Amino acid sequence: MARLPGLRIHDLRHSAASFMGNSGIDLFAVGKVLGHARYQSTQRYAHLANDTLLAAVEAGAAKQAW
Description:
Layout: H1 9-22, H2 27-34, H3 39-45, H4 50-64
């Protein structure tokens, strides 16, 4: 009905996982939402953006600052 050729439900699961991960939701929670039994499955689904990874590094560095 949406007339989106080539779009699969599986693609939407990847997008949802990525949006959740990049919004700060931890991968354990993302995995539970997706119904994954293994953490490795969630890692394949959640494609984290570079700015999300940079924010994680900066947060860790801030904890190390004296």
